[in-house]
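Question: does this match?
>
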Amino acid sequence: QVQLVESGGGFVQTGGSLRLSCTGSGNIFSINRMGWYRQAPGNQRELVAVITSGGSTNYADSVKGRFTISADNDKNTVYLQMNSLKPEDTDVYYCNAIGRLGTPYHDWGQGTQVTVSS
């Protein structure tokens, strides 16, 4: 079993920055893709950033150019650098490995709350 732990969220003003971290018990990189998701109450969980074991990245259009996903395998940690934050970025952010068919691989962690004030 792998327990994921997200951290780094908080309150920030529009235009500010936050850096989220994701780690866990055991190796979180069980498969070759890791992703960051976000979810607000009443909404679907949205995949916003993906990184592969080879270092390739992909982003949702809503965050492209503002967010950067990275990974440090030696530290067993995935990061999400968030710049130029907007109120619509307000959500709970989660990380997870992404399975072969695009489904989450590990059990979900508690997430970390990001709140952007206008």
The chain has a mean pLDDT of 94. The first strand starts at residue 4 and ends at 7.
